[in-house]
Give the backbone structure.
Amino acid sequence: GAGVSQTPSNKVTEKGKYVELRCDPISGHTALYWYRQSLGQGPEFLIYFQGTGAADDSGLPNDRFFAVRPEGSVSTLKIQRTERGDSAVYLCASSLSPSDGYTFGSGTRLTVV
Amino acid sequence: KQEVTQIPAALSVPEGENLVLNCSFTDSAIYNLQWFRQDPGKGLTSLLLIQSSQREQTSGRLNASLDKSSGRSTLYIAASQPGDSATYLCAVLGDMRFGAGTRLTVKP
């Protein structure tokens, strides 16, 4: 595609529920990144994929968070047993390689009530 | 672990002023550095990418410099306009780390 697409743009869920956030990167970009951004803060790194594999998942806050990229293109960030503290904007970016410039999607605003 | 710091956290200037935003990083063994702009409630828009072997990069009224030895990058904005009001973020690529950003307000 022409850009990085994230769906849904907004998600409201109840505490304890499971959510999935989707990222569709630019075609041909092998590197894909997930970030979380709280109000007034910079993006916080969560996980980086190179192809199908998670090359660095050191930013995932706990085992409720998991991400996959089974075919090396679309990625899904999965959050189990959501908590109110998970409320944030979740950003996805892709690049040709880790040292190339990132292109970001518009983000998914997650609100846990 | 790479730490990225942006100073100041917020800046307010009158229209027409030239200004400098600062980004510092702790590990000078970086790949490349990228500057972004973020408008309220929006995603990040890339402004400039500086390769680790470069010292500066220019696009229109924007000029970004990189000094790896001192762990610093600066974003220079010439003749600022109200439309430049946004949050500016720097990112150390390879390490995938961002600064917290500088919130810029340009007053008409």
User: Anything to note?
Assistant: The first strand of chain A starts at residue 5 and ends at 7.
